[in-house]
Specification:
The chain is an alpha/beta fold. Helices cover about 60% and strands about 15% of the residues. The protein is built from ten helices and five strands, in the order E-H-E-H-H-H-E-H-E-H-H-H-H-E-H. Strands 2-3-1-4-5 form a five-stranded parallel sheet. Bound molecules: adenosine monophosphate (AMP). Adenosine monophosphate binds next to helix 2 and helix 3.
């Protein structure tokens, strides 16, 4: 089983490119953000707890997303691999993912990091707000907090995966979506 991590700041295109990859390969796309938004929409207790944090641009507790991820790994029997989008986002999540996979006799296959600048993150997310209507996309203050959270808590994972020899970068900054997508698809073909 392959376990690929799509890495990068909010708005890098992780979800969009993950969909293109799952159209080409028998991999399952897991977005922890989408799973959390489904809980919020369903009005569950977990969703209420998550909403209070997500709406401010903060991360939810590691244990919350790890339980979701473990559950998907357990129940998915058909796919040949997973594209993890938005997970792991902290060093503790990365270490716990390694343990969850080791227990299954597996390991992270590779990390594909989609590179864009902070300025482009802000532009893209404010644009996406007008299309998708996500509350955490709408205000520049919340987006700034998400960018700061990315630098403080998520960026350290780059060194973690570089040390494991699993870290790969792809330029995601072209204004032409298909150019970015094709770079990601080329990288996935190389990593297969
Ligand atoms: P995303 O759709 O990946 O941008 O995620 C939306 C929001 O969900 C994030 O800003 C976080 O508040 C929360 N979230 C998603 N994935 C995680 C994660 N792995 N760890 C903590 N919080 C997360």
């Amino acid at each position: 089983m392959k376990y690929y991590i799509f890495f990068g700041p909010p708005g890098a295109g992780k979800g969009t490119h993950a969909k293109a990859v799952t159209a080409a390969y028998n991999y399952k796309h897991i977005s922890t953000g989408a799973l959390l938004r489904a809980e919020i929409a369903a009005g569950t207790e977990l969703g209420k707890e998550a909403d209070a944090l997500i709406s401010k641009g903060n991360l939810v507790p590691d244990s919350m997303v790890e339980a979701m991820i473990a559950n998907v790994f357990e129940n998915e029997k058909e796919a040949e691999g997973f594209i993890l989008d938005g997970f792991p986002r902290t060093l503790a999540q990365a270490e716990d993912l390694d343990k969850i996979l080791a227990d299954r006799g597996e390991e992270v296959s590779a990390v594909v990091s989609i590179m864009i600048s902070d300025q482009l993150v802000m532009e893209r997310i404010l644009h996406r707000a007008s299309i998708e209507g996500r509350a955490d996309d709408a205000s520049p203050e919340i987006v700034s907090n998400r960018i700061a959270t990315y630098h403080a808590q998520t960026e350290p994972l780059i060194a973690y995966y570089k040390a494991q020899g699993k870290y790969h970068e792809v330029d995601g900054a072209s204004p032409v979506l298909e150019e970015n997508r094709d770079r990601v698809l080329a990288k996935m073909a190389e990593l297969k």
